[in-house]
Amino acid sequence: MTQVEASARPRRPGLPRPPLAALPAALLVVGLGLAPLALIAFWSFWRFDPATYWITPDYTLASYAALMDTGRLPVLLRTLGLSALTAALATLLALPAAAVIGLMSGPRKAAVLIALFTVPFFTSALIRAFAWRLVLGRNGAINQTLVAAGLIDEPLEWLLFSNFAVIVGMLAAYLPFAVVPLVLAFGRIEPSVIRASQDLGAGFWTTFRRVILPLVLPGAVAGFLFVFVVALGTSSEIQLLGGAGDSSISIMINDVMRVVNFPLAFAIATVVVAVAVAVLLVAVRFFRLSKLFEDLGT
Amino acid sequence: MSAGNASGGIIPGATAGARPLFWAVTLLGLALVYAPAVYLLAASLNPGRQLGLVPPSEFSLVWYQALGGERRLLAALVESLWIGLATAVVATPAGLAAALAYRALQRGRGAFFLFLMFALFVPGTIQGLGLSVVFKLVAVRPGWLAVAASHVLWALPFAFTVSLMGLAAVKPSMEKAARDLGAGPWRTFADVIFPLVRGAVVSAFVFSFLLSFNEYARAYYLVGRQNTLPLHMFGAMNAGTSPTIYAFSGLVLFGSILIVGLLGLMMGRRRGS
């Protein structure tokens, strides 16, 4: 909003030239991130060699055909569905929270709320999923409260080791991923736009629906996609909170690797990364997501 | 971050019921995030083997005292501390340098940002799997070095973002003044930029450490004989043998929250003064 023209930015003097300072990070991202993934994608077309327990160059789509085997496709689709549902719920929770932070709080309260939503990034997802076991279990906090209140006679069994538990666990774990881009989006709204709407006689909900929502849409889309992509790769919530035999893409990869079927594991990984990258690129292209982050650090 | 007056934000007036509704959803979100952790901590003070809440008068630290005897847990703890330190030592300067480069960029900032954020969106299992086969090729043995390498990639986006926010305190005019006074790029960095972003650098270091310390999916493919702490804890969680795991989980969780909270206070105070 403030910097329309990139060329209008003052040239910052005196620093090491940009490519040089970017070099360590770029080497790390390429060497440890992109290159291994590219190799995986390449090797997913090779064939498993039982003699050497490794792969031999024999270009084939066999691994991708094996993806369609019994039991594998449903796991892929189930993970996609759970991730989308979690992302939708997280976005619905994050929108009002970001509105409170961006519209209804002074700088101090906003800073505290942002901190509260950011702290979970730096805590153990494993432990937080584990903690839900205590809350949702047969003798957990929720069942005990409901029984004590006389609302139910028997503890609810479906609270834990169920899809419900997995979604609650993922929602709690990945909510911050939806809140942060929405807070950035609210921060980019010019207060004068809202004042103009109010001066023209619009009530809060009209202003919210017709002025604010369209302006924060990129943030909501970013939040949804961030949660979706992160949830795609989850394993601990399902391992700790899901029902017996529940699987996810990550768990399936671990299982396939246990029988050292490298090409199949690589094929699954390639499909997942391709989906994640495609989803992010589409979002960047159509919702101008990178604009959200351009003001950081200036 | 938010404009407007100090008391009420940019919509201080009537909101036709939106304010209580939005606050209710916000508190629900915070409860989802924090309530289980608080419950876990309270339950870990229960001296019995049957987990649940007991009245505060019966609180006991027996499970915390039992932690000292868990040799394998302590070995995993030490391993994770070292890996966390190694991760932070590499990720922090790389993130800061990348943030300086980002600011100096005339164009392509969005692309550069996404490039650096990329590791955030690759599932840990897949990144760990990819690194494990590459390391096998180049004869890097599974162990702390391999785990730390994967954690550097995981921590880098956070170290970069935190450094970038810290750099907002450095006004272009200050750099220009330093240059006009004859300082070269390194001198400007050492005498002008670094003192201004020291708090952010400390935060980036601590965040990188914590991200590594709590990471599980990548380490799964890269550990050697010695488990990292999250891997050891995952085993203990599913074994369900001893309530010490609850005590230790509570300790790690609230240790992490406390550290981040203290950092936040420190930075808030610096900004306020």
From TrEMBL, chain B:
InterPro entries: Bact_Polyamine_Transport (IPR051789), MetI-like (IPR000515), MetI-like_sf (IPR035906). It is found in: Cell membrane. Residues 77-264 form the ABC transmembrane type-1 domain. The keyword Transport applies. GO terms for biological process: transmembrane transport. GO terms for cellular component: plasma membrane. It is a multi-pass membrane protein. The chain crosses the membrane at residues 21-42, 81-102, 114-138, 144-168, 189-213, 245-267. SUPFAM superfamilies: MetI-like. Pfam families: BPD_transp_1. Keywords: Cell membrane, Membrane, Transmembrane, Transmembrane helix, Transport. PANTHER family: PUTRESCINE TRANSPORT SYSTEM PERMEASE PROTEIN POTI (PTHR43848). Belongs to the binding-protein-dependent transport system permease family. CysTW subfamily. This is ABC transporter permease. It comes from Methylobrevis albus. The lineage of its organism: Bacteria, Pseudomonadati, Pseudomonadota, Alphaproteobacteria, Hyphomicrobiales.
